[in-house]
Write a structure and sequence with these properties.
The protein is an alpha+beta fold and 238 residues long. It has four helices and eleven strands; from the N terminus they run E-H-E-E-E-H-H-E-E-E-E-E-E-E-H. It has one domain: 2-Layer Sandwich (Alpha-D-Glucose-1,6-Bisphosphate, Chain A, domain 4). Strands 1, 2, 3, 4, 5, 6, 7, 8, 9, 10 and 11 form an eleven-stranded mixed β-sheet that branches. A hairpin with an 8-residue loop joins strand 6 and strand 7. The radius of gyration is 18 Å and the shape is globular. This is START domain-containing protein.
Length: 238
C-alpha cells in the first residue's frame, strides 16, 4: 500500500512556523538555536565519530565527509571544511552578507524579519538546472562571535513565515540543517567547517548521496578563493 501511494520521507521535509520551532524540546526558537550551536561545537570536538571521508575530486584542499542520521529521513549530513586566508569575523561576514560573491546561482535575497541583533529570517532564491524550477529558501539564522579563541558560528534552519512567500516562481527547498563553525588557525587565517543537510526538492536520494557533498565543497572553494584574490591583489608586470 505504501508503495502504491508513492510515500516517501523526502515529501516530509516540511518547515514549521517560527513560533513552533523547538516546542518538541519545550523551548522557543532561541532555545532551539542555542541547542543547535551546542551540538555543533560538540560535533567539532568529536570529528571522527560516525563520519565517512570522501575524496574531493575538484579541490584537494577541502575535506569532505558524510554521516547517516538515524531519524528516518534518507538524506545524509555532509561536512566540508577548508582553510581560508581571512580572520573569522571576515569569513562570517562573507557567509552572512556576501553570498553573491561565492554563490554564482544566487538570483535574489532579502531579510524577511530581524528578530534581534544576532538573528533574522532570511530568504534567498538560487537558479537551478533546466527543467527544474528555481530553489527558494526561507531560513531562520543566528550567529555568534563571542566564542572562545575568537571562533564564530552560524546556525540556519528552514521556517515558515507569513512575510516570506516563494519568490520568482520557484520551489521551496528545505534546509534541514546548515551550521558553520569558523575558527582561527594562526597568521590571520581561519578554518571553516560547514555541516549541511538540505532537501532541494526534485532530486533523488541517490543524487544527494553522489553529488550534494561536492556542491557543498565547491561553495567552500569559492569562499576561500574570494579571499585569496583579495589578498594577492593585481599582478604587477615587470
Amino acid at each position: 500500500m505504501m508503495t502504491q501511494c508513492h510515500f516517501s520521507y523526502m515529501e516530509e521535509s516540511v518547515p514549521v512556523a517560527l513560533e513552533e520551532l523547538g516546542t518538541e524540546l519545550h523551548q522557543d526558537w532561541r532555545g532551539y538555536l542555542y541547542t543547535c550551536t551546542t551540538a555543533l561545537l560538540k560535533e567539532a570536538r568529536d570529528r571522527s565519530r560516525g563520519w565517512v571521508n570522501v575524496s574531493c575530486a575538484t579541490d584537494t584542499l577541502v575535506d569532505v565527509a558524510y554521516k547517516k542520521v538515524g531519524d528516518g529521513h534518507p538524506l545524509r549530513l555532509w561536512r566540508v571544511s577548508t582553510e581560508v586566508e581571512a580572520p573569522p569575523l571576515e569569513v562570517l561576514q562573507r557567509v552572512l552578507r556576501e553570498r553573491h560573491v561565492w554563490d554564482t546561482s544566487l538570483l535574489k535575497w532579502r531579510v524577511v524579519a530581524r528578530l534581534d541583533a544576532l538573528a533574522e529570517v532570511f530568504q534567498y532564491v538560487c537558479a537551478n538546472m533546466a527543467p527544474l524550477a528555481a530553489k527558494d529558501f526561507c531560513v531562520l539564522r543566528s550567529w555568534r562571535t563571542d566564542l572562545p579563541k575568537g571562533a564564530c558560528v552560524i546556525v540556519e534552519t528552514s521556517v515558515e513565515h507569513p512575510d516570506g512567500p516563494v519568490m520568482l516562481g520557484g520551489v521551496r527547498g528545505i534546509v534541514l540543517a546548515s551550521r558553520y563553525l569558523i575558527e582561527p588557525c594562526g597568521s590571520g587565517k581561519s578554518r571553516i567547517m560547514h555541516l549541511s543537510r538540505v532537501d532541494t526538492k526534485g532530486r533523488t536520494p541517490e543524487w544527494y548521496n553522489k553529488s550534494y557533498g561536492h556542491i557543498c565543497a565547491l561553495y567552500l572553494t569559492r569562499i576561500r578563493t574570494s579571499f585569496k584574490h583579495n589578498a594577492d591583489g593585481p599582478e604587477s608586470k615587470v
